[in-house]
């Protein structure tokens, strides 16, 4: 007969849980941007016009289907992250999704990046950085 000794795993502190929530939401921005690219790609290949065509496309067009499925993953991860993080820090971080979408749109769809758009992306990054510095100190 063998004996198993289980050592308790120390619980994560508040700071570690908040840091983990921050990383999860940062990952969510990439997931959301990927979902947007898939949805745009699928929308470009819709065969039936109008609202009914869009609904049918969500079920029959793989990029559309997987884009919306990624939004489901995004939502589930956000719920998980919001349990331990500060909403006032995590939610503005989602704005980085606009940055990723802008970059991916240029790379994948060959859309233009005007100086005004580039300035907007820079303002978003600066804004997220400023808001991130304002979190509660634990």
Explain the overall architecture:
- The protein has 138 residues and is mostly helical.
- The protein has one domain.
- The chain has six helices and no strands.
- The chain has helices spanning 14-43, 50-60, 62-82, 87-93, 96-109, 115-133.
- The protein is flat and about 65 Å long.
- The relative contact order is 0.15.
- The mean pLDDT is 87.
Helicity range: over 70%
- Determine the strand fraction and express it as a percent band: under 5%
Number of strands: 0
Query: Structural class, please?
Result: mainly alpha
The span between the termini is 47 Å
How many helices? The count is: 6
Tally of distinct domains = 1
Question: What's the SSE blueprint?
Answer:
Layout: H1 14-43, H2 50-60, H3 62-82, H4 87-93, H5 96-109, H6 115-133
Please supply descriptive tags for the structure shown above.
74% helix; 138 residues; mainly alpha
Summary, kept brief:
The chain is mostly helical and 138 residues long.
């Amino acid at each position: 007969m063998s004996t198993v000794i289980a050592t308790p795993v120390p619980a994560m502190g508040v700071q570690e849980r908040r840091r983990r929530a921050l990383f999860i939401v940062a990952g969510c921005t990439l997931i959301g941007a990927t979902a947007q690219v898939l949805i745009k790609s699928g929308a470009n290949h819709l065969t039936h016009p109008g609202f009914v065509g869009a609904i049918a496309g969500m079920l029959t067009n793989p990029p559309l289907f997987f884009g919306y499925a990624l939004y489901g993953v995004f939502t589930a991860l956000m719920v998980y992250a919001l349990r331990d993080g500060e909403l006032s820090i995590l939610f503005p971080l989602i704005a980085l999704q606009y940055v990723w979408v802008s970059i991916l749109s240029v790379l994948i769809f060959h859309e233009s990046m005007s100086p005004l758009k580039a300035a907007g992306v820079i303002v978003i990054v600066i804004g997220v950085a400023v808001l991130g510095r304002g979190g509660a100190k634990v």
